[in-house]
Amino acid sequence: MKPERWLLCAASLCLLNTPAVSSVPVPTILAQAQGEEQTSIDVYRTVSPAVVTISTGRGSGSGTIVSPEGLVLTNDHVIRSARGGVVSVSTTTGKRYTGQVIATDRPNDLALVRLNTSDRFPSVKLSNPASIQVGQRVFAIGSPFGLSGTLTTGILSRVGRNGDLQTDAALNPGNSGGPLLNSRGELIGVNKAILSPGGGGNTGIGFATSATVARNFIQQNRNRTAPPITTAQSPSVPSTRGLGVTVDTGTLVVLGVQPGSPAANIGIRPGDRIIAINGRRLRGVQDLQTFLARRPASAILTVGRNRRLADVRVNF
Fold first, then answer.
1. Distance set, CA 78 to CA 35, 81, 113, 240 (Å)
2. DSSP states of 202-254 as a string?
3. pLDDT tens digits for 211-248?
4. Which residues are catalytic?
5. What are the residue ranges of helices labelled H in 75-210?
6. How far apart are the first and last CA of the chain?
7. Are strands 51-55 and 60-67 parallel, antiparallel or unpaired?
8. 146 by DSSP, 3-state: which?
9. What is the rounded CA–CA span in Å between residue 58 and residue 50?
10. What is the CATH number of domain 129-216?
11. Which residues contact 140 (CB under 8 A, 6 or more apart)?
12. Local structure of 190: helix, strand or coil
């Protein structure tokens, strides 16, 4: 009997002295996870309305509205192919605006775009440089592969000697020009590149121009005025028979409308997209020019605006 009692006591002692698996209570762990999740939700809700998609007709990227008047910060390489510095800018609600590039900084891959509108916009605040710390949690919002309003998260992995920020937050083509944010929803960097040996895709190393550089760039150029948008007609289309618009050659998004033109008379405005003429879908600007060259008396245009389509009659 005694040996049996000893074994039981020994087992009890072993059980009592077994170290705990974790010294952090489960409720505390859950609360921390829920707190991190809520931070992600709050950052996205606050910032995403101020993140836009920028199209030049030959490519697209992202941008961040940094002033209520419609000043957009993006990459130089995003807007470099824009004809005349004119771009199409879409918000997360689908509303489109015409923008004019007013300044570029190629060494730091930055550009400023001013939206041609009197509308007021939600904007993002730039972070204080002292608050940019390796190890902090970061968030990227943009339009990878054209998927606007996409959120990814990670940490700030490194600050380069030139001030560039390195992150493991997933960045892909289309994220360029979008914001890298801290947990307060402040912009700490402008996403611009990924390390992709052999073009094999994202390796978990992305780069952004620091908010410190971006702040100086904005302050130096924010008061520049955009040159007026010029309207153009195809040389083969007489102005009296032309539609009176400038369009993006790739997307057929209207960039400018000539006052008093047929397009202006029916309410066409910058940001609209010409989809079809007389029910026939347009494949490109050449189709539009070919139709107008026939000197039609009238036509039915299918126009897209704010994700809605409408058929409108235009008389030339």
1. 35, 8, 11, 36
2. --S-EEEEEHHHHHHHHHHHTTPPPPPPPP---TTS-TTTS--EEE-TTT-BE
3. 999 999 999 998 886 544 333 333 322 232 478 887 77
4. 77, 109, 176
5. 76-79
6. 111
7. antiparallel
8. helix
9. 23
10. 2.40.10.10
11. 151, 152, 153, 154, 167, 169, 170, 171, 175, 178, 179, 180, 181, 191, 206
12. strand
SS3 38: helix
Cβ atoms of 211 and 132 within 8 Å: the answer is: yes
Helix (H) or strand (E) holding 29: helix 26-47
Average pLDDT over residues 135-157: 95
Average pLDDT along the chain: 82
DSSP-based three-state secondary structure for 285: helix
CB atoms within 10 A of CB 111: 30
Instruction: For CATH 2.40.10.10, list the domain ranges present in the chain.
Output: 129-216
- Edge-to-edge, what's the strand order for the sheet holding 280-281? 280-281, 273-277, 298-305, 308-315
Per-residue DSSP letter, 282: P
Q: Which residue has the tokens 């771009």?
A: 87
Nearest to 310 by CA among 275, 284, 285: 275
Instruction: Give the other-Cβ count within 10 Å of 30's Cβ.
Output: 10
- Which residue type, as a one-letter code, is found at position 80? R
Higher pLDDT, 12 or 305: 305
256-271 pLDDT, tens per residue? 777 778 888 898 888 8
Residues of the chain with CATH 2.30.42.10: 245-315
| Stretch among 44-48, 82-86, 141-145 having the lowest mean pLDDT | 82-86
Q: Does domain 245-315 have CATH number 1.10.10.10?
A: no
Q: Which residues contact 111 (CB under 8 A, 6 or more apart)?
A: 73, 74, 75, 76, 78, 79, 101, 103, 104, 105, 177
Cα 97 from Cα 201, distance rounded (Å): 31
C-alpha span between 10 and 20 (Å, rounded): 19
